[in-house]
Amino acid sequence: MRHGTRSDIRFPALGILLTAALVLLANGCRDKPAQSALDAALAPIRGLPVEQQEAALRRALADGSVPAHLVWYELGNQAYQAAAAPDAPPPGPDSPTGRSATLDSALAYFQRASALDTLFVEPLVNAGLIWDDVAEGRDVIARNALASARECYQHAIRLRPDDEKARCNLGSLNFRRHQYTEAIEQFNAVLAHNPRSALAHYNLAIMFAESKMYREAIREWEAAAKHDRDGDIGERSRQNIKVIQDLMKAEVPAGVAAPSHS
Known about the structure:
Elements: H1 16-19, H2 37-46, H3 50-63, H4 68-83, H5 101-116, H6 121-134, H7 140-159, H8 164-176, H9 180-193, H10 198-210, H11 214-227, H12 232-250
């Protein structure tokens, strides 16, 4: 879940009609910008073998060689990834997420990073994604998690109004809660700042496809593919365009010319 390289982006699910055919993404765009100060500070540790990284982070925390808020953030990333393992330890009786002890640790690490640097956006986005995942359930924890996810994303946006991932994650959350106007507002806000955002174009395409506005969906996926030619978003966009074009042809009665995709 490292910012920009891991699963810190939430993509909306599609309805029954398209879920089986359209491929959603697990990771962000591969077209990486120049290395950020955050990535530069953590690069020496991220360059180590995976099994050595946690120990190196603990040493950095003790000797102060890496700022503490970055160490806790990276420990949160590692715990989040470990929480997906089938042998992740079960949650305790006071688990905030109700999923696993490792996921609880990831959330606690992100919260500690945020507490140490109240202007640090990345752990807020990643904590929001944890709550977002938990909110997919139907119990009391899930209902409370929805509000927590929304607050994390909104807090991140208050700190960094142009943050692509925070806005797209919030837009996706709104979409999955059938708050379509609010979702479009978030995606359009990203595009107003960066018209080349493949992530925002991809999300808009999902919304159009769900509403059977196929030409509009194709247009947005074409934009996403254009701006992320060699990345995951571009690849999935091209796959989805083909699926939609085939679907449009299948919906045309025999003997009637298929509509133009231009």
